[in-house]
Amino acid sequence: MLDFSDFQCPHCKSWYENIEPRLRAEFVDTGKVRLDYKHFLVISKESEYAANASECAAEQGLFWPYHDLLFAQQGLQGATRSAPAT
Question: What's this model's pTM, rounded to 2 decimal places?
Fold first, then answer.
């Protein structure tokens, strides 16, 4: 099974949260199919940065945990934070 996705896409996040867990449980976890992720960059430059970072994580055997983290923190990447008042 191929997942074409963008870590910055809200529809992709919805699929990740609502559909993917059921498919994983029924097909991936039982060994019936393998899930492969393919980058489909459509949202912004942040999409490219996230994709590149996930490939670095993959080189360390950590793609899927990083994939989960990116979706969990979607919208927070690149957000500017104001300096604390002094």
Answer: 0.78
